[in-house]
Amino acid sequence: MSLDATIASNLAIVRASMERAARASGRDPADIRLIAVSKTFSLEHVLSAFRAGQRDFGENRVQEALQKIAHTADTPISWHLVGHLQSNKAAKAAASFACIHSVDDEELLRKLEISALEAGRSTELLVQVDLGREATKHGVDLERAASLFEMGRQHRSARIVGLMVLPPFADDPEDARPFFRRLRELRDELRASGVDATMLRELSMGMSHDYPVAIEEGATMVRIGTAIFGERTRR
Ligand SMILES: *Cc1c(COP(=O)(O)O)cnc(C)c1O
Fold it and tell me: What is the pTM of this model?
């Protein structure tokens, strides 16, 4: 099969199973966005998925993403940064990504707002929460999440629109369910404590092996690489 045919077929399978999971939990499939995570894959892979109708793509490294972003500048692709972001790359990230899923630091949040303002861009941000406490290196605890939301209230260009979680890897997707559920509950708690609904619109959770479970628990964005592009050979 050609790359186009393989990726189109994988995308169709993923979209169908997203729809199934949404309907099974009484949700509207239109409320869940598929982010195709193209890290380590070539521009050709991105363009194949684009031709199959995919519009949201995710990368985990700024440098690698910038090349793909430059080569797709004439397309309506929205780029998402799903990997850790160091604050010294905040300016580049704010000028290049439609959405940054990995905000976990006050200094980073502040720099993103300043950079987005300067670049004349509006950038959406998600606060990455660490609910695992041991396995994951990045993300904030609940207290700091609340403080980031407080800080982000004043932002006009880099606006917080939700939460992201990356649970510790487990073979059984059911092991991720408590993390997904906890993220949804945290959204509800922040809401109840007075955080504006516009800042809590998105829940970014679920990857290739566990996205149906994440959708059952309320995901509005799923980040899927392997199931679309195949196994990664690098990293
Ligand atoms: C790589 C990555 C994904 C996609 O993982 P797959 O298992 O290939 O679907 C999702 N989220 C983040 C943060 C990633 O780094």
Answer: 0.96
